[in-house]
Write a structure and sequence with these properties.
It comes from Flavobacterium shii. It is a single chain. This protein has 132 residues and is mainly β. The protein is 8% helix and 44% strand. The longest helix has 10 residues.
Length: 132
């Protein structure tokens, strides 16, 4: 599957740690950054794929599961470390669930928001992944 866990450089210090995401950390130019927070218990986010956009997800606080599907196989990755992120390349269906209380999901994206880049219907995604 075209996803990868990437370590984010971590500088440890007695006053607290710092991690930095720059263009040499992830394999794309950063064009958009947003974050999910206050996700209610039992709620799910995502539920789509992208035709071109790449995303890098980080659990800044707490934890959540990312269910990934490439049209052939499915896997679940739990994110729970602020110094690791999940690179999701284009053409991968993603669903985020099981958010712990107080969790924050940072999303770093390769493109600005373009609605036409989204595939929001799973059956349409399966057809799209077969045609690729």
């Amino acid at each position: 599957m075209n996803v990868q866990i990437i370590a984010i450089p971590k500088i440890e210090e007695r006053r607290g740690n710092i991690s930095v995401i720059e263009n040499d950390t992830i394999p794309f130019e950063i064009k958009r950054v947003y974050y999910l927070y206050d996700v209610p218990s039992g709620a799910e986010r995502g539920g789509h794929a992208h035709k071109n956009l790449q995303q890098f997800l980080v659990a800044l606080s707490g934890s959540f599961d990312v269910t990934l599907n490439d049209g052939v196989e499915e896997q679940v990755i739990t994110l729970n470390k602020p110094y690791e992120g999940l690179l999701i390349n284009s053409g991968i269906w993603r669903e985020l669930q099981n958010f712990s209380s107080g969790s924050v999901c940072l999303v770093v994206a390769s493109e600005v928001y373009i609605e036409d880049d989204y595939i929001r219907d799973f059956d349409e995604f399966i057809s799209y992944s077969i045609d690729k």
